[in-house]
């Protein structure tokens, strides 16, 4: 199997990413294969990432490249992809591919149409047989294999894997646990969508923010910054543009195991330059956090052209919000700051943040964190199985519901469950 990706946009494969209209996906693909990939589940995405790719241009004037997809993501009416080329394989001429098009299931006029097809042919074998590439050319692991995560079944094995990841002195490492490896993404709750791709909360972000303060104003009286209020809202499970992370790997593996016992979980390891990490009083954090107070229509009206950016009404209103918490803030925002994803260390203003060694990723306007990471945030993963046994081991290390969620009702539940009468135990005594 392989992916054939054709575009009319000259220079597209010199860029780091590309977007296809969904209507062009699976064109010139046999019906049985098209039916299988019509819905892009996480499993299907991983499968497609495991297939080699031909990256071609319409017509016959450009050479064709060979590589792998490293990111596939649905984005509205488009499919967003990132890719890498195999460095040991030179570009292949259009004529070379043209000579074996029947063997590659490339049909008449197909190379004159922008589309993405999935073919049931062995790409490398066909190229070997045509003397187009050498067998040693493909010895480097494809991207999909490089991103395959190691699997652990014990706490000891997990800690060993954590220590095995390369660390730099100028970087800081955080962790996040997902109970379902193939379901959850690196996105804040505010950005979640329904099955039809509609945002559940994003359109009403400014209303969510104000309504919770109106209903519980006394809880927010001590908060100095909008970021402080977002952290508190996150603590009470209101959808925000914050994503919880922790500096303690044991907390992350606890969250990976605490629910969906039968499903594989995972721990995501996020590494970033220490100098890029922000604190609760950061100006950039204030700029992004106060987006929560702008109505969606005003966010949409922000013009990111650098010359006029700070003069638009929406940005002027955003600056007004920032100056409420920082009176001396200069009336000037760097446009790219509003679209960043930054790591923020907030005040430890509640027991849960303290007990979970918590920090946050704060997402800017329309920001997305690729599941494979970015230039600023390196992402690695560890698959977690045997969850019940791992939870028992974590309990011996005092990582349990009572210590991770330090409220008296959780402590009471933990103590009651721990000392509840158990017939099986009594019979073995």
Q: Can you offer a commentary on this structure?
A:
The protein has two domains: 2-146; 151-397, no CATH class. With 429 residues, it is α+β, with helices and mostly antiparallel strands. The protein is globular. A six-stranded mixed sheet has the order 2-5-4-3-1-6, with helices on one face. A four-stranded mixed sheet has the order 7-14-10-8. Helix 9 (249-257) crosses helix 14. The chain has 17 helices and 14 strands.
Largest sheet: 6 strands, mixed
Side-by-side strand order of the widest sheet: 2-5-4-3-1-6
Q: How many individual β-strands?
A: 14
Helical residue percent? 25-40%
Q: What is the average of the pLDDT values?
A: 86
Overall structural class, as computed from helix and strand content, comes to alpha+beta
Task: Give the oligomeric state.
Answer: single chain
Separation of the first and last Cα atoms = 58 Å
Label the overall shape. globular
What number of domains?
A: 2
Number of helices: 17
Give the DSSP E fraction (strand runs of 2 or more residues): 15-25%
Q: Uncertain segments of ≥5 residues (pLDDT<50)?
A: 136-147
């Amino acid at each position: 199997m392989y992916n054939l990706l054709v575009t009319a946009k000259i220079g597209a494969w010199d860029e780091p990413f590309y977007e296809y209209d969904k209507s062009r996906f699976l064109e010139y693909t046999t019906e049985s294969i098209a039916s299988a990939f019509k819905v892009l589940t996480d499993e299907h995405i991983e499968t497609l990432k495991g297939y080699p790719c031909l990256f071609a241009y319409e017509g016959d004037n450009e050479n064709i490249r060979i590589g792998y997809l490293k990111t596939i993501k649905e984005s509205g009416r488009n499919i967003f992809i990132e890719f890498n080329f195999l460095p040991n394989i030179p570009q292949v001429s259009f004529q070379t591919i043209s000579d074996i098009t029947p063997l590659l299931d490339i049909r008449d006029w197909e190379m004159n149409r922008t589309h993405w097809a999935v073919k049931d042919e062995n790409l490398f074998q066909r190229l070997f047989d045509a003397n187009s590439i050498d067998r040693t050319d493909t010895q480097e692991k494809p991207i999909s294999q490089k991103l395959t995560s190691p699997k652990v079944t014990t706490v000891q094995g997990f800690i060993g894997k954590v220590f095995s990841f390369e660390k730099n002195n100028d970087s800081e490492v955080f962790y996040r646990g997902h109970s379902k490896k193939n379901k959850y993404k690196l996105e804040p709750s505010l950005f979640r969508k329904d099955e039809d791709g509609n945002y559940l909360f994003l359109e009403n972000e400014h209303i969510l923010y104000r309504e919770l303060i109106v209903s519980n104003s006394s809880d927010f009286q001590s908060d100095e910054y909008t970021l402080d209020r977002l952290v508190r809202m996150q603590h009470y499970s209101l959808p925000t543009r914050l994503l919880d992370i922790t500096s303690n790997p044991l907390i992350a593996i606890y969250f990976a195991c605490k629910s969906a016992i039968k499903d594989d979980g995972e721990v995501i390891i996020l590494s970033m330059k220490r100098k890029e990490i922000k604190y609760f009083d950061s100006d950039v954090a204030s700029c992004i956090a106060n987006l929560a107070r702008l109505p969606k229509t005003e966010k949409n009206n922000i013009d990111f052209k650098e010359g006029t950016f700070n003069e638009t009404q929406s940005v002027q209103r955003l600056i007004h919000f920032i100056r409420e918490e920082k009176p001396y803030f200069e009336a000037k925002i760097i446009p790219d700051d509003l679209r960043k994803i930054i790591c923020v260390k907030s005040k430890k203003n509640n027991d849960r943040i303290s007990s979970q060694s918590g920090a946050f990723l704060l997402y800017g306007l329309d920001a997305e964190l690729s599941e494979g990471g970015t230039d600023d945030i390196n992402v690695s993963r560890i698959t977690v199985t045997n969850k019940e046994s791992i939870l028992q081991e974590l309990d011996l290390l005092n990582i349990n519901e009572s210590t991770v969620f330090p409220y008296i009702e959780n402590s009471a539940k933990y103590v009651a469950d721990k000392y509840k009468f158990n017939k099986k135990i009594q019979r073995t005594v």
